[in-house]
Each structure stands twice: as structure tokens, then as C-alpha cells.
Amino acid sequence: MRQQHQPGDEAEMASRFLPVERLQKGMTLAGDIRVSPSDLLLCSKGDIVNSAMIHKLRSWGIEYAAIEHSYDMRREQREHCVKALRQKVYDLFTAVALRRSPSMLAFTEAIEEMAFAIDRLDLEFFWQALAQLKGKDGYTFVHCLEVGLGALLISKNLGFKREQRVQLCLGATLHDIGKLGVPQAILTKPGALTAEEFTIIKNHPAIGVTLLQSSGMSHPLLLHAVDEHHERYDGAGYPHGRHGDQITLAGQITAVADVFYALTSDRPYRKGWCPLRTFEYIHSQRGVQFSREAADALIDSLSPLYLTGMQVLLSDGSSGTVEEVDPRFPHRPSVRLGNRIVDLRDCPEIAVISA
Ligand SMILES: [Fe+2]
What we know:
Blueprint (H helix, E strand, L loop, with lengths): L1 E2 L7 H4 E5 L13 E4 L3 E4 L7 H9 L4 E5 L6 H23 L6 H16 L3 H14 L2 H19 L4 H12 L10 H4 L7 H7 L2 H11 L5 H8 L21 H16 L10 H10 L7 H16 L3 E4 L4 E6 L9 E4 L2 E4 L8 E3 L1
Antiparallel strand pairs: 1-3, 2-5, 3-4, 6-7, 6-10, 7-8, 8-9
């Protein structure tokens, strides 16, 4: 038995061949899949990949399938993917809060799906979807997803392997799950916390580690992400007061991602910082609050995504759009002003005053 079309034929020009084990639900087949010698039609062009199809292709020994070149899931399917992920995060938190056994398998599958989407660089959609969710829903769940996504991108930038990325993403997504063990009155207290209340808050990383271990999640990267997300490179963090490389890279990555997304988010008591200001802050805290390695990887991964195309006002009174970002100098981008481009790296006298 032989699959009738193979990688390299003309269909590849308008499509992309993927091994069957890399097919994902929601992809669209770019051509019929038949098997010889009977020319039996297994699946048709335009069919949407689902579990039954993958099972059928495997059982027939099919190795590759042509997927539409823009093989992104269609918009509504992608929206469904993000909403389903959010729901799974919500379900997970609720189950833990109610002391029920959460469905870790479903949650892990959702994170793997997210990791796959990131690998395809289908980033713009995820950021837009998260921004929409943020407008509609509570802060915490979206913040968790953002930190998980950010950690995934940073770890990819640093060369983590796929399984490591998924485990770190799981931990980063769940970094604040220990807050479920902190009284609501303390979490939502509008004024300053007393020393005693702050001591209770500082327990949330340890509570999170205990919750996850009791749920059977014990991968070191995952637990480090939760345990160390409030540690600071200079040793001024909590709960352990570790400094420098005493903090694992997983902890360093989660810490910088957590701060980045916290600063850029609107909160009831303050407006979120613009990304440019936030990147500048992250850059200024290299080797202080954050490890250089993690901070540089965050800026390298995220600054082009956030800053390219952004409208900015310059200190000389002109305004334009960010054309290009050098991750080493995220606060000195090239800016298009009408027909000309000004590279702020070469113009120290000009600053971005608002974005
Ligand atoms: Fe936290």
C-alpha cells in the first residue's frame, strides 16, 4: 500500500506537508488522500483535521498529509482554541480551590496545543485574542495565560527543548495558583498590607508548589517556575531570598515574564505602562531585579512583536511609527516620519516621550 502523494510534488507549492503525527485539530487538508491500489479515498481536500481523521490516517499507514499553506486554524477555530484554553485554566483553578482532583491531562494537552501554535509563530492572533479576553474577563486568568505564553517564547529564544518548554509554560501559567490559599480579603485589600498580611502573601509560591505536587505535577522546571517567580536576581525577592544563579533559569524566566505582563496591564489603581516604557524598565533592571539572560531573551522575543508599528511621539515634536527594533536597545527604535526613517540609536538628543 502506498500513499499517493508525497512531499515534493506540485501540491507542496500551495501547501505544506506535515508528518501525520504533527497534524493538529483544526488544520485544513490541501488535497485528497487516497491509497493504492484501490484508489480508496480516505479524506478529501478541505476536510478539517480531527482525532478520528488522525487515527484513520495512522491505521492506514499514511505518513504525510498536505495542509493548506496558511494552515493556521480558521479564525473561529483559533478563537475556540484560546477560549478553550482559558476555560481549562479556569476549570483547573476551580477544581484545586474546591479540593477536587483537577484534569491535569486536559490542561497539559491545552498547553501543548498552545506550544504548537507558538512554534508556528501564530503569535499575532494569540496576542489579539488575549487582549480581547482581558477586556471582557477577570485579570488573573488572562495574566496567567500571558505569563505562560511569554515563558514559552523566552524559553524558545534560549533554546529549550520542546518538552522543557511545555513544562515551563505549565509552571508559568500556574505561577500564582498558590493565591488560592490566601484569604480573598488580603488579595483584594485596597490599601497597604500590614507586615502580617504580607507574610501570608509571601507564602503563595510555597502553597502553589504543594498544590501542584499533590496533583501529581512534579517536573522540576514546572515547580521551579512556581516556587521562584518572586525571587530577584539581587536577592531581595521572596520566599527564599535566593540571588544570582541560585535562582534556576526557569524561575528567572517566569519572574521577568510575570513583571512584564503585570506592568503592561491596566489595574484598578493604575494605568498599565506602555510596552516601550516596560521594555526600557526591564532593560534597566538587567543584573538587578532580573538575570541578564532572562531579561535579554524577553526583550529579544517580545519587543519586535509589541513595538513594530506602534505610534510614537518624539521629544522634537514629531510623531511616527516604529519601523524596526534592535532588541539590545528596545527604547531606541527606528521610527518612520513620513518618507524618512530616523534611527534613534544614532540620535541621542531625541527621545520617545509617549507611545
Ligand atoms: Fe505571584
